[in-house]
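Hi F.,

I've been meaning to write this up properly since the lab meeting, where we talked about keeping a consistent format for the predictions we share between groups. The idea is simple: the sequence comes first, exactly as it goes in, then the structure tokens exactly as they come out, then a line or two of notes. No screenshots and no reformatting. I'm using this chain as the first example so we have something concrete to point to.
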Amino acid sequence: MKDINKIYKEYQALRKEKALNEKKANLSEAISVYINTQRKTLAKANKTLKRGNVEGAYLILTGKNLKEKISEEQPIQVVEATKSEVAVRISAKILYGADRKSGKILWEYGAPNFFPIFTQDENSVFVADHETLVVLDKRSGKEISKRKMMGCLEGLLQEKSILFAASNDTISAYRTKDFQELWKEKIYDAIQLAKSGENLFISTQEKLLALDPATGELKWENPYKGNTGRLITGGANNDGNVYTYLTNHLHKKRGKLSKSGRIVWTHCLSSSSVTTMKAHDIALYVGLGGDIRAFNANTGEIMWKNEIGDKYTYLWQIEIDKEKNVLEIVAGDPYYTRKNEVVYLNPKTGKRVQK
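Output, unedited:
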């Protein structure tokens, strides 16, 4: 009997040791997942901070707490105005499809990040979910397909049936109808993508690059030389040029290969911080905190400026409704503590209009 009791105790001890090891393994896996999640969050916040968007970095780091404070009645904001009858809008981590005329919400999609990375054409919405590209039907919001990408997606840009994607150290181009890869190039630390004419512009931590959008071949590159706030947008009228915001200065740069990256004009913005830019027709529209200013795209001279709100107002987005010739300005505040609103302006005068 003593031998049986001894064996049983040894058996019980082995069972406890096995259970303990399983618990350790589960805890180790949970810690690894948490560390990886935090690493991605910190990397995204760091990139946002290096662009000069302090508020955006803060929101990324504290998104969960801020989300709890967001009212369900808070208006959603316009993200991009296209010819489609469905406007894609965003509030916190939710993407919405809204009827452009009535504003009625047609569908909702829970996005993976507090500030979802996405782009769209007239029929589809392309959403970056870490290493996965999700394609939604624009009219119904239903998921059409998913595609596993090489590395974590940092930027998306769609134009003329081609989707450009920046992930980790790679820029890739895909045909949107079947996602056939057209080309892929090694480019490290891409922050932003912009397209104008026959140029695809890439802003990294260190430089501005111009690529051939059809082949991915590098045309030219310019170093930033320690400047910060690397915001870019394509040239007015799709003219092949690019506008950059670097350390309180706006620059227009030549996109043509023979004049690669040559600065056409520069405008000093004192200590103001640019939050968003958009070029169209003869103007470059720039959001500076709660102000919007229109610059002549050819000369850099100020055409008009308008104070959208008080000192706490923050301009998130500038878009153009080409059919109605109206600027759509998304105004709110950087911490989502007050309501956002869409303000409509005359693009020639900057005066408010009723849409």
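Notes:
Residues 64-81 have pLDDT under 50 and may be disordered.
Residues 232 and 244 are 4 Å apart (CA to CA).

If this format works for you, I'll send the rest the same way.

G.
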